[in-house]
Structures are given as structure tokens and as C-alpha cells.
Specification:
Layout lengths: L1 H34 L12 H4 L1 H31 L7 H32 L17 H18 L5 H13 L2 H8 L8 H5 L10 E3 L16 E6 L9 H8 L1 E5 L19 E5 L11 E3 L4 E3 L6 E3 L5 E4 L11 E3 L5 E3 L16
Antiparallel strand pairs: 1-2, 2-3, 3-4, 5-6, 6-7, 7-8, 9-10
Helix pairs in contact: 3-4, 3-6, 3-7
Length: about 350
């Protein structure tokens, strides 16, 4: 027993010694940690433009010169689009058109970007700031302060004092989108009303539905339950000119489902055949091709912006940015069993914005 007591005393002493040692070490670590001081921010280095008024003036001239150069680039791109048009059957005209328009757009964007960066680095306030965190939802006082900050930014950036920079920047930003407007306008017909063009396609009474891209006519018996086909008017492949334009308007998706699953309006009961329905393949949002069909839900998905249409209910929009249903093509079957159109679409195909006046 004495031996055990002696061992216990030795262990207790050892434990106490260890605790004292650890405590001392921890205390040293705390002291060492507390001894580290915040080094703070490095000394502020003033820029050349902060010290030399002449350098500041040179930087200002450089910035507004770049902005005016951006204006020149935008105007050059518009002029190049008109001076170097794309001429059919002349590949060289495509190269010239792309080259000079690209030069103009590159100059406009590059000069605008460099000008903004140079403005920020050489003329805007060169002081460090701390952005304190705050609740996401702003109070009335925060909103009022935001207005004050806006005015402070205007003052600090020099927009109020540097009229040439302000005016040249506004001019560059106003002119910069114009090349895109001109280029996209060139994609639309120049001498015809787009609404009238989209009101009429190649479909007419008796036109057979043909598979895309082969152009082979399709029979009703070829369309199995749950299947879908991309369809074009028969004879489209034989066109020498305007084939792509006509296909862009007349493309159709053909789907077959159980007749009892179709929710048809009384006036459209005769537009389908034994559960087979045909709808425009052109999304009514911005004109992307709709082609992803889900058999169980009868939904069509546009892959561009995820608009969804219910084929069982007149292809009505059930999700996404599209604003109207896909136009339906009335179909029937001829004496040989081939699917044919009863008429053209009875409403404009494609994006809804074509119908806006």
C-alpha cells in the first residue's frame, strides 16, 4: 500500500509539473500573439497626376481623345457596313465586309475600354476606403445616403468639372450600340413588312408534310405513339433561292399522342388526325427552334430560354419567357395515307415582337 501511495504522489507531482509547463507555454503563446501589432496600410503613394497639374491635364486629354476615338470606330463600322456590302456569289465581299466592320467595332470597344481604365487609374480619387458591411435591406436613411453618395461620386470622379470627359464619354456610349442596330436591321427584309412575311409560309392546302432534312413525305402510319418529327413542306429542298428563309418560317414539329389526351377546342377538332398534331417549330419568344419533346408530360421545351409548351393543350405556354402558344398547322391525310396540310398557319409564326406595331 505504501508503494502505491508513493506512486500516486509521484504521478500527481508529474501531472502538476506538466500542467504548469503547458500553462506556461500557453501563456507565452498568448503574449506572443498579443505582441503582434496591426501593421496598417502601407504609406500612400501619390500618382504623377496628383503631383503635377500638367500631367493631370495630359491624362484628361488622353481620356477624352480615346472616347472620341471610340465614336470614330463606331461610325467607321456603320460606314463599312454600307460601303462594303456582302454580294451574293462573291466570297471576297464577305471578307472585306467582316474585316472593316471588325476593325471599326474593335477600335470602338478598345478605345472605350482603355479610356475608362486610364480615367480610373490617373484621374479618379486615389485614396483607400473601407466598405462597412450593412444589412441587405436598406432603410430610408440608407436610401437617402445612397443619393448623397451618388452626388459625391459625381463630384469625386470629376464628371461635373471635366466637361470634355463627360461629354465624350456620353457620345461614345450613345454611338457605340449603333453598329449593332444597323447590322441586326440588315438581317430583316429591307423592302417588305416583316409581319406580312411571317403571316404567310410555304404551307398551303394539299402540301405534304416531309421529313427534315431528307424531304421524304411522311405517312400517318409512320408516326408512332409518343414520337416526334421535324417536318418541312414537300418541295422546300427544290428551291434554288430563299430556301433557308422559307424553312425558318415553315418548320414544324409533328407529335402523336393518344387522341383522348388532346384537349381540343371545338373549332380545332378537325386540325389533327388520330392524335397527330403539328405545331410551328419556331419559338414565340425569340425564334429558337423548339424540338425537345417529353412523352409523359406532353411538354415541348425550347433549349434557348427554357420556354415550355403543352402539346396536349394547343401548345400553350406553361413556363418561360414566351408570351403566346405555338401556332398550329391544320393537317389531314390524303388518299395515299400521306399527311398533308389543310391550309397555311392562321396566325403569324415566330417571335411575338413581329406583331407589335
Amino acid at each position: 500500500m505504501a508503494s502505491d501511495e508513493t506512486s500516486g504522489k509521484d504521478l500527481t507531482a508529474a501531472d502538476s509539473s506538466s500542467v504548469e509547463h503547458v500553462t506556461a507555454a500557453a501563456g507565452t503563446a498568448v503574449v506572443a500573439r498579443d505582441a503582434l501589432k496591426n501593421p496598417g496600410l502601407p504609406p500612400h503613394r501619390q500618382r504623377v497626376t496628383d503631383l503635377d497639374p500638367r500631367a493631370e491635364k495630359r491624362a484628361e486629354r488622353t481620356v477624352y481623345t480615346l472616347f472620341y476615338l471610340s465614336v470614330v470606330g463606331s461610325i467607321f463600322a456603320i460606314a463599312a457596313y454600307m460601303v462594303f456590302p456582302i454580294v451574293p456569289e462573291e466570297p471576297g465581299s464577305v471578307r472585306l465586309n467582316n474585316l472593316f466592320i471588325g476593325i471599326g467595332l474593335a477600335l470602338a470597344l478598345l478605345a472605350l475600354g482603355i479610356g475608362i481604365v486610364h480615367w480610373g487609374k490617373s484621374l479618379m480619387p486615389n485614396t483607400e476606403g473601407i466598405d462597412q458591411r450593412h444589412p441587405v435591406r436598406g432603410s430610408d436613411q440608407a436610401r437617402e445616403r445612397s443619393v448623397e453618395i451618388y452626388h459625391e461620386v459625381i463630384e469625386e470622379s470629376g464628371l461635373g468639372r471635366r466637361a470634355l470627359i463627360r461629354n465624350s464619354l456620353i457620345g461614345a456610349l450613345v454611338v457605340f450600340p449603333l453598329p449593332a442596330v444597323v447590322l441586326f436591321r440588315g438581317l430583316a427584309p429591307q423592302d417588305q413588312d416583316p409581319v406580312a412575311l411571317l403571316n404567310q409560309t410555304m404551307w398551303k392546302k394539299g402540301t405534304r408534310l416531309a421529313l427534315d432534312p431528307s424531304g421524304a413525305p411522311i405517312k400517318a402510319s409512320d408516326v408512332t405513339l409518343g414520337s416526334s418529327f421535324a417536318v418541312i413542306p414537300e418541295g422546300l429542298q427544290d428551291l434554288e433561292h430563299g430556301r433557308l428563309e422559307e424553312k425558318a418560317k415553315a418548320a414544324v414539329i409533328l407529335v402523336r399522342m393518344k387522341p383522348e389526351d388532346l384537349n381540343q377546342l371545338p373549332e380545332r377538332v378537325t386540325w389533327s388526325y388520330d392524335g397527330i398534331v403539328a405545331y410551328s417549330k419556331i419559338c414565340t419568344h425569340v425564334g429558337c427552334p423548339v424540338g425537345l419533346y417529353e412523352q409523359q408530360t406532353h411538354h415541348l421545351l425550347c433549349p434557348c430560354h427554357q420556354s415550355q409548351f403543352d402539346v396536349a393543350d394547343h401548345a400553350k405556354v406553361i413556363f418561360g419567357p414566351a408570351k403566346r402558344a405555338l401556332p398550329q398547322l391544320p393537317i389531314a391525310v390524303d388518299s395515299e395515307g400521306y399527311l398533308i396540310a389543310q391550309s397555311d398557319f392562321l396566325e403569324p409564326v415566330g417571335p411575338s415582337f413581329w406583331e407589335r406595331q
